[in-house]
Structure formats: structure tokens, C-alpha cells
Specification:
This protein is of the alpha+beta class and 221 residues long. It is built from 4 helices and 14 strands. Strands 9, 10, 12, 13 and 14 form a 5-stranded mixed β-sheet that branches. The longest helix is centred in the N-terminal third of the chain and has 20 residues. The radius of gyration is 25 Å and the shape is elongated. 19% of the residues are buried. This is TonB C-terminal domain-containing protein.
């Protein structure tokens, strides 16, 4: 084989390999709620000039290439960008907005309970102690919140109140959330301008990080 023929063969091989690597394929995306694991209908997907909407089983399809990015949006969920993997079938969990979390009578009643009932411990306030803690809880089979642990409070000075607070929390989560672990940040702050540092979360896993409750130093009535 002559040198020119050999070089031409290599060039052709490279071109064919590049074409195969960049060839578009039909990608099937199934979109689910990350808490309930239920399919999400009417999710809008956009990629280049293509648009698609998920059906009642959460499926949509697009022509895309590995490594491309697809934007997903829905009025009840946080927008999400997906990088297309090598596989043609992709499952994508989306995070529901706080106001659309399935909680009866409403998520505001759950969150409001902690905002109104958490107290700054008197001893901690008088000793000018602050804390940034993370309260982990799990949703049981009937939708109740079960306290697991409190991180960031080694002396247990801030966390003694939480067992009773969870026992008295009004309402229920949707039963489809059973087994999901939630994280509620609580900041005890004296309001002196000090920067609060979140606890280390190495090895800590949860399904949803809720908005933080901020408690400023005061003496409970």
C-alpha cells in the first residue's frame, strides 16, 4: 500500500469515527418528581430549535447528541438543565417548588409552625452562643415527620426543643413522599453581624433541602 493510499485510509477512518460520534439520535427522557417519584406531565424541553412536551407518563423525545444540554421547565418545578449521556433513555428527577410541595393543609402551615415555635434557648442567648444547625427528618408511611438527628449542635444546647416541635407539627405530607429524608436548616443568630457557617455535610444525604428558619436572640414570653 502506497503512503498516499495509507494516509487517505486514515483520513477516511477519522472522518467516519467523528461522524458516528457526533451523529444525533433519538433521546427518550422520562421526567419524575424527585420526592414522589411520580411522572410529571407537561414538562417543556428545549434544545436548539427543537421543542417537546412530556406526556402523562412523563416521557418526551428529542434528537440530540451525547454531551448536548437540554433545558427542562415546568410551572410547578425548578428549571433543570440536562447533559445528554451516552444512553438513549434518561430518567430526570425535578425538584418541586416549595409552594407546590404536597402537604396538607399547606406547606406554609408546616414551615410557619417552626417559624413561630422555635425559641432561642435562654442560656445560649445569655452566653452569646450562636449556631447553624441542620435538622434531618424522614416522612413516614402516613405522612408524618419523624425526627432523625440534629447536626451542628454538639452540646445539644439548641436542639432539645425539636422532638416536641415535630410531634406537634400540624398536617401531613403526601403519602407518596414516604421514606424521603428532608433537611431543615435553622440559624440561631444574635444579630451582631457575625457570619454564620453551615455545618459540614460530608456523608450526609437527604432528598430535599428546605429553606432556612432564622431565629434571632430574644427572651421568650
Amino acid at each position: 500500500m502506497s503512503l498516499k493510499v495509507f494516509q487517505a485510509a486514515i483520513t477516511l477512518t477519522v472522518i467516519l469515527s467523528f461522524s458516528q460520534a457526533t451523529a444525533q439520535q433519538t433521546i427518550f427522557i422520562r421526567v419524575i418528581d424527585n420526592l414522589s417519584q411520580k411522572p410529571i406531565e407537561k414538562v417543556k424541553a428545549s434544545y436548539n430549535k427543537q421543542k417537546a412536551t412530556s406526556n402523562d407518563r412523563g416521557y418526551l423525545e428529542l434528537l440530540a447528541t451525547e454531551g448536548d444540554t437540554v433545558h427542562l421547565s415546568h410551572s410547578h418545578y425548578k428549571d433543570k438543565t440536562v447533559v445528554i449521556p451516552r444512553t438513549a433513555n434518561v430518567k430526570v428527577p425535578m425538584e418541586v417548588l416549595d409552594k407546590k410541595i404536597a402537604y396538607t393543609p399547606s406547606f406554609d402551615s408546616f414551615f410557619g409552625h417552626f417559624i413561630s415555635q422555635i425559641r432561642y434557648p435562654r442560656d445560649q442567648r445569655e452566653n452569646k452562643k450562636e449556631a447553624y444547625i441542620l435538622v434531618l427528618f424522614e416522612i413516614d408511611s402516613v405522612g408524618k415527620s419523624k425526627l432523625i438527628e440534629v447536626l451542628g449542635d454538639p452540646e445539644n444546647g439548641f436542639s432539645e426543643q425539636f422532638p416536641k416541635l415535630f410531634e406537634s407539627a400540624p398536617g401531613n405530607w403526601d403519602p407518596s413522599y414516604a421514606g424521603r429524608k428532608m433537611a431543615l436548616p435553622v440559624v440561631f443568630h444574635l444579630g451582631q453581624g457575625n457570619e454564620m457557617i453551615a455545618p459540614l455535610l460530608d456523608g450526609v444525604t437527604f432528598d430535599r433541602l428546605l429553606n432556612a428558619v432564622v431565629v434571632t436572640g430574644y427572651t421568650p414570653k
